[in-house]
Amino acid sequence: MILCFIHCISRACLTNQQLSVLGLVSIVNLFKLVKDLTEAVIFALIIFFVLQISVQNFKVEGSSMAPALHSGKYVTIHKLGYVKIELDKLRRFIPLWSAEKNTLALPFQQDGPVRGTVVIFEFPQNSDRSFVKRIIGLPGEMVSIKNGVTYINDHKLDEPYVGTLKENENAQYSILDENQYFVMGDNRPYSNDSRHWGPVPLEKIIGEIWFNYGLPFDLGFMNEAK
C-alpha cells in the first residue's frame, strides 16, 4: 500500500513538471507568434509607405496627348526620381542634426527628366490641377516652332510621337532657365501647354509615367523619344 501511494505521488509530481514545461513552451511560442506578427506588420507598413511615396495613379482627361494617351485612360507614375527629403523637417525630430543643404536627393535620382519623357505635373498657375504632357525643352535650351515643326536651338526635333501639327504655327520662346522645362501635348492643336503659359519648374513635376492602362484590359509602357 505504501509503495503504491509513493508511486502515485511520483506520477503526480511528474505530471506537474510536464505541465510546467508545457506552460513554458506555450509562453515561448506565444512570444514567438507576437514577434512574427509584429515583424509582418512592420514589413507591411514599410511596403505601404514605399508605395505611397513612389507610385501614384491618374486618369487622363482630354485628347491633348493623343494618340499616345486617350481620354479615359489610366496612368501609373513613379515618383521616386523627384522625391526630395526636406532636412529642415528632420531637424525637428533628430536632436543636434545639422546639414549643409536644405534638401537631400536619393542616391539613384537623376537631375531631371530627359527629353521625350511623359510627365505628370502640377499646373504652375494652379497647384490643385494636374497636367500630363511631354518634355520637349530642357534647361538652357531655346524652343522655337516653324510651320508647326519644333526646333531646339535652331535644330529640328524629331517627334515621331506627335499626332497632329499646327502647320501655320510659328513662335520663338525665351531660353529656359535652370530647372525649367518646356512641355507640349502630342496633339498640338488641342493642347494647353508651355506655348500658352510658359515652362514648368522642376519642383512642380510629380513623376514620370511608367505605364498606362484602360478597360477592357489594355496595358502599355511609355517609351522615351529623344
What does this structure look like?
By secondary structure, the chain is α+β, with helices and mostly antiparallel strands. It has 2 domains: 1-56; 60-221, Ribbon (Umud Fragment, subunit A), CATH 2.10.109.10. The protein is built from 3 helices and 14 strands. It has helices at 2-54, 87-93, 194-197, and strands at residues 55-59, 74-78, 84-86, 103-105, 118-123, 126-137, 143-146, 149-152, 155-156, 171-172, 180-184, 200-201, 205-214, 218-221. Strands 1, 2, 5, 6, 11, 12, 13 and 14 form an 8-stranded antiparallel beta sheet that branches. Strands 9-8-7-10 form a 4-stranded antiparallel beta sheet, with no helix packed on it. Strands 3-4 form a two-stranded antiparallel ribbon. A hairpin with a 2-residue loop joins strand 5 and strand 6. The protein is elongated, with a radius of gyration of 31 Å. 20% of the residues are buried. The model is unreliable at 5-14 (pLDDT under 50).
Keyword list:
226 residues; single chain; 2 domains; 3 helices; Umud Fragment, subunit A; 28% helix; 8-stranded antiparallel β-sheet; alpha+beta; 30% strand; 4-stranded antiparallel β-sheet
In terms of topology, how is this protein built?
Elements: H1 2-54, E1 55-59, E2 74-78, E3 84-86, H2 87-93, E4 103-105, E5 118-123, E6 126-137, E7 143-146, E8 149-152, E9 155-156, E10 171-172, E11 180-184, H3 194-197, E12 200-201, E13 205-214, E14 218-221
Antiparallel strand pairs: 1-2, 2-13, 3-4, 5-6, 5-13, 6-11, 7-8, 7-10, 8-9, 11-12, 13-14
